[in-house]
Amino acid sequence: MSNPRFRTFLTACLALLCTCSLGNPLKWEWASEPMQDTLLGQGTFTASKLLDQKNVTAGASDYLWYMTEVVVNDTTVWGKSTLQVNAKGPIIYSYINGFWWGVYDSVPSTRSFVYDEDISLKRGTNIISLLSVTLGKSNCSGFIDMKETGIVGGHVKLISIEYPDNVLDLSKSTWSYKVGMNGMARKFYDPKSNGVPWIPRNVSIGVPMTWYKTTFKTPEGSNLVVLDLIGLQRGKAWVNGQCIGRYRLGENSSFRYYAVPRPFFNKDVNTLVLFEELGLGKGPFNVSVDIISIESRNFVKWDQGCSS
């Protein structure tokens, strides 16, 4: 039921047949994705070339960090530069010296793209951290094993904005690599995990790479249960540690409903965890757990009645 084609079909049906009524709001906790290592350019191995994401991750993760260092001696030339990344996509996030700088989100069917981002560099050592994200096999056509993914081969270049004839090709620099996100490795999504730094107040919004957690009671009956993820942008969702798939709303709010198989539920209280990558939406405050009444073809907000 977490198949993307099914989610698309479900979304289309709900958009046409259902009306919504408000239920009790969920109470949220949050945690930042730990990125101290990758934002400092610290990976698990290095290579003097840009590798194929598919080969490096070997199916273990949708995420691969590409990290390198650039030493700037003359900020007059390189202080304001354009970072140009030729990638096989579909998503690239860029961090410069530990700060989130931008994102490129291509159409899933696009085989390659060029991501340009104007950046600021300081005198001395600068760290460029690029996070490449794939969307899974279901978003690819046949012969996926024959297709390159990520930032394989490059190029990755710096182009001086003040002096555009000055171009620095970083494609064959020493690149450090890390597979996956630390929060997923530490199982932030699993309610049984200990030591997750959940914060129960001042819920952070508008910040990329943020985790959210809440609890809700199991809806009664046997009707189909869906998550309404309105207000979010892009990421993954788990119910009781079981992944229900990747969500991707963007500006199209109709693609906001995601089915949750009833076998995922506990008898009473359940834990919903979201990993929001983009963080440019309104946060999780309007997210709800809904049920669909088959008999009346009506879409009803489930009264969760569960504090977290």
From TrEMBL:
- Originating organism: Medicago truncatula
InterPro entries recorded for this chain? BetaGal_gal-bd (IPR048913), Galactose-bd-like_sf (IPR008979), Glycoside_Hdrlase_35 (IPR001944)
Please state what the protein is called.
Beta-galactosidase, putative
The UniProt GO MF terms for this protein read: hydrolase activity, hydrolyzing O-glycosyl compounds
Q: What is the lineage of its organism?
A: Eukaryota, Viridiplantae, Streptophyta, Embryophyta, Tracheophyta
- Matching Pfam families: BetaGal_gal-bd (PF21467)
- Gene Ontology biological process terms, A to Z: carbohydrate metabolic process
- Asked whether the keyword Acetylation is assigned, the reply is no
Q: Which top-level group of life is the source organism from?
A: Eukaryota
